[in-house]
Specification:
Length: about 230
């Protein structure tokens, strides 16, 4: 290697390890970490997009293309896909250290859209008119609980600029809600006929569990963050 090439190589090596380049690399890594459209956040946005799609299938009446049974099966499949994206975006964000304030805020909001949207569609659908007297109250409980928790999140953020991420009680609540929605959509076709159980027996059971966990997780949020509620301010 000629002396000139050696000098060029030495310059490149020393320049790559220079404090300026290290600083630039660190800045680029930090920029990628805080990018709002990273993979976990894309999954969150995708979950939100799925909500109106499966709502349409739940509300779809019998037609030559899809029977009501197939519409409910497709809706249940989409709800399951949405729930899996909720699981995946959290795992990916933690392992790759892609946790952002956008994700902390939008991930629980996407869960709320996912559950409330499905319950509203179930309540409005004529296919589930036999349990509408109960689903309307369950939907109202879920809606007001989510509204209250979202409000306290905003108050806490405005107080100390910290975004409250979903806790374990909130994740457990969401899991019970997904199980309940899947049960309501599939019970008449899959469970009742196979086990010869009374109509919507498991839907009633899962709705009861869901309501208890919904109220409990709401209580946990208010207990932990009541300090941010100051009527004097």
């Amino acid at each position: 290697m000629s002396e000139q090439n050696k000098e060029v190589a030495e310059y490149k090596g020393s320049n790559a390890d220079s404090p300026e380049n290290k600083s630039n690399n660190d800045n680029n890594a930090e920029k990628n970490k805080n990018n709002k459209v990273n993979l976990p956040n894309k999954l969150t946005i995708f979950r939100i997009i799925l909500v109106p799609v499966y709502m349409i299938f739940i509300l779809l009446p019998d037609n030559p293309v899809f029977s009501q049974s197939w519409s409910n099966i497709l809706a249940a499949a989409l709800v399951l896909i949405a729930a899996l994206t909720d699981l995946l975006d959290g795992i990916i964000a933690r392992r790759l250290k892609l946790i952002t304030n956008f994700g902390k805020l939008m991930d629980p909001l996407a869960d709320k859209f996912m559950v409330v949207g499905a319950m509203i569609a179930i309540t409005a659908s004529d296919s589930f008119s036999d349990i509408r007297f109960l689903t309307v109250w369950v939907t109202a409980i879920i809606f007001f609980r989510e509204l209250a928790v979202t409000s306290i999140r905003l108050v806490a953020k405005s107080s100390d600029e910290n975004v409250i991420a979903a806790n374990f009680a909130g994740k457990l609540k969401t899991f019970s809600q997904i199980v309940c929605i899947m049960t309501i959509l599939l019970e008449d076709m899959v469970i009742t006929g196979s086990l010869h159980a009374p109509p919507y027996l498991f839907s009633y059971i899962t709705m009861g569990i869901m309501v208890l966990l919904t109220l409990y997780s709401g209580f946990v949020y208010f207990k932990n963050y009541w300090k941010y509620i100051d009527p004097a301010k």
